[in-house]
Amino acid sequence: MLVRSLEGRLIAGRLIVIRVLPSETRTMHERLETALHEEQPELVIGIGLAAGRASLALERVAVNVLDFSMPDAVGVARKDDVVARGGPDARIATIPFREIVETWKSSGIPGYVSNSAGTYLCNQWLYETLSLTGAATPPIPTGFVHVPLLPGQAMEAGAENTPSMALDTMRRGIESMIETIVPWIEARPHEKLPKSGPSVWIPRGLREVER
Fold first, then answer.
1. Cα-based torsion angle of the residue sequence 173, 71, 20, 88 in order, rounded to the nearest 10 degrees
2. What is the pTM of this model?
3. What does DSSP say about strands 43-50 and 142-147: parallel, antiparallel, or unpaired?
4. Nearest 5 degrees, angle CA 12-CA 14-CA 17?
5. Beta-bridge mates of residue 201
6. How far apart, in Å, are the Cα atoms of 72 and each of 104, 130, 173?
7. Active site positions, annotated
8. Do the beta carbons of residue 209 and residue 23 sit within 8 Å?
9. Contact status, residue 76 vs residue 24, Cβ threshold 8 Å
10. Residue 130: what pLDDT?
11. Which of 30, 55, 78, 123 is the most buried (most CB within 10 A)?
12. In angstroms, how far is CA 209 from the centroid of its own chain?
C-alpha cells in the first residue's frame, strides 16, 4: 500500500519507479542485479516492514550475515551464513542520515537512524544493493527504511504492546526523504542527477521479523 501509493509520481522532479520483490533469499542478488540494469536508477531506497518498530528506522549498516529460523517465502532458512563469501563484514548506506532525520523532525514525522537492520532479508537486500550500486560510475546513493505496522495490523498483533504508524505519515516520511536526498546529490561535485528519465527506484516486499 505504501509504495504503490508512490508509484509513477514525480517527487523533487524525479520519477518514482517501484519494484516489489518476493521474500526469497536465494534469488535476491539476481533479482536486484536485473532490476538495477533495467531501471538504471539515480538513487535507490528499500522499504521493509518491521513489526515492533515504533517509527521510521533509517538503516545505517548492513552486515555480511544471514541468520534466521523463520523461512522465507519458499521455505528456505539460513543459519550462521554469509550474504557474500569474501565480502566485507559490513557495508554502510550511502545517503545523508543526519539531513533526513532532521527533515523528519521538522516535519513532525517520527524517525531515527538504526544501527542494526537485523540478519534477515532486509539486511541482505541492503548489503547486496550497496555492493551493486557501489560498483556503478558514479556510485548510486542507496538506503533502506524499516517501517512500523499499520494500526490495523497492530490491532491484530495485540494493540496493547504493538506500536504502529498511519499510512499517510509513512508516505510523507518517504516523500520528504527523497526531497532531502535529491538536492544533497545535486550539491555534490561531478555527481549531479539528470533532470529527466526514471530516477528513484523503491523496491518493497521484504518482511523483517527482528527488531
1. 70
2. 0.89
3. parallel
4. 130
5. 17, 44
6. 32, 21, 28
7. 59, 122, 146
8. no
9. yes
10. 97
11. 123
12. 15
Domain 15-187, CATH 3.30.499.10 — does that match? no
Quick one: pLDDT at residue 42?
Answer: 94
Which tens digit of pLDDT belongs to each residue from 90-143?
Answer: 999 999 999 999 999 999 999 999 999 999 999 999 999 999 999 988 899 999
Pairing of strands 66-68, 78-81: antiparallel
